[in-house]
Every structure is written in C-alpha cells, then in structure tokens.
Amino acid sequence: MNLPTPESHPDFPLWKLGFTPPQVYDTFFPQNFRFIGNPDRPAVCGTFGLRDERLWRFEFVVERDEDPQEMASYKCATGIIFPYLTHPGRIYG
User: Which residues on neighbouring strands pair with residue 46, listed in sequence order?
Assistant: First the structure.
C-alpha cells in the first residue's frame, strides 16, 4: 500500500491538522489485529509483515447463502470494508 500524500489526496482534511503521511497511515491502519464484533458480519483486520511494507488484511464472514466469488468482488468487498475506514471528523476536533 502506498502512503497517502498531500499530492495524492489534496483535499484530505488531516493535512491541515499537521498530520504526516505515516501518521495518516497509522491512524487508519493501526498495528495489531482488530476483531470486529459486528453480529451481522464478524470480521478481523490488521497489518502484518514489516511495517514499512504496509501490508494489510481484512477478512469477513461469508454466509452460506452468499456466493464467495461475488463477495470477493470489488463492489461487495469495499461495501463491507470502507465503512470501517471512515472516521467521523469530530474525533480530530
């Protein structure tokens, strides 16, 4: 994963708060694994490998009546993953 930069994401609000690219990455992709106890779709995510390689993994439960291939599609996977990567602005003041 490439680090976000003010050039790659010019409208990203955390630049105005003085965040550096590594700080932004660490905010959205913290070290350690996180177990997501969502009763509708349990999941786990976390970084692994060398921190400088910025490898990240997100796994979620695929229900018996769901097509695993469809659930692995960009549309389905991002629909599940992206809400966990969205932070409310109020936590940054």
Answer: 33, 57
Give bridge partners of residue 45 from the DSSP assignment. Answer: 34, 58
**Binning pLDDT at 50, 70 and 90, where does residue 86 land?**
confident
Contact 31, 22 (CB under 8 A): no
- d(Cα 28, Cα 25) in Å, to the nearest integer? 5
The reported pTM is 0.74
Q: Is 58 exposed, middle or buried (0-12, 13-18, 19+ CB in 10 A)?
A: middle
One-letter identity of residue 84:
Y
Residue 46 identity (one-letter amino acid): G
Judge whether residue 65 has pLDDT over 90.
yes
**Mapping DSSP to helix (H, G, I), strand (E, B) and coil, where does residue 48 land?**
strand
- Written as one letter, the residue type at 52 is D
62 has pLDDT over 90: yes
Give the residue carrying structure tokens 């590594």: 22
